[in-house]
Design brief:
With 145 residues, the protein is mainly alpha-helical. Helix content is 88%, strand content 0%.
Length: 145
């Protein structure tokens, strides 16, 4: 009977961690994409403000304040997008590390399986040799009589 892979539990845990890291990466990537979309929208809205025609001083002040607020909104959106991109990069690194941990344990598992198969093959060969030796001895014993 084959010996159980001694790191099987650890491999299962690492696979769960890898799955969690992949899910976290997907969430971070989606957030980064959404944040970047908000930056583009804020920039488009800010650039869409025009100061054409005859306007009173109050209207001009309102438009200027609106444009300033738009810049602030764009700056805030950029900061959020940068944070989201940084988090996506961190999640990517976490996923790579988790995946590497799993890959190492899977290679060890493969090596264990090969070693187990070789051990079984050697044991089977020893049994076959023993049977052949026993038969040969019985033949020799029967010829001597």
């Amino acid at each position: 009977m084959a010996k159980k892979y001694p790191l099987e539990r650890l491999l299962r845990i690492r696979r769960v961690q890898e799955d969690q890291a992949a899910a976290s990466l997907a969430v971070s990537a989606r957030r980064a994409d959404q944040a970047q979309a908000r930056v583009l929208k804020a920039e488009q809205e800010m650039l869409g403000i025009t100061l054409e025609g005859d306007h009173t001083h109050a209207v001009w002040k309102t438009l200027i304040a609106s444009k300033t607020a738009g810049r602030s909104m764009v700056s805030e959106a950029i900061a959020v997008a940068q944070t989201a991109a940084q988090q996506r990069e961190e999640r990517t690194e976490e996923y790579k590390a988790a995946h590497q941990d799993v890959a190492i344990l899977e290679k060890l598992e493969e090596k264990h399986v090969v070693e187990q198969q070789h051990a079984e093959d050697r044991a089977e060969a020893a049994v076959v040799d023993e049977i052949a030796t026993t038969r040969h001895r019985h033949k020799e014993d029967s010829h001597e009589l």
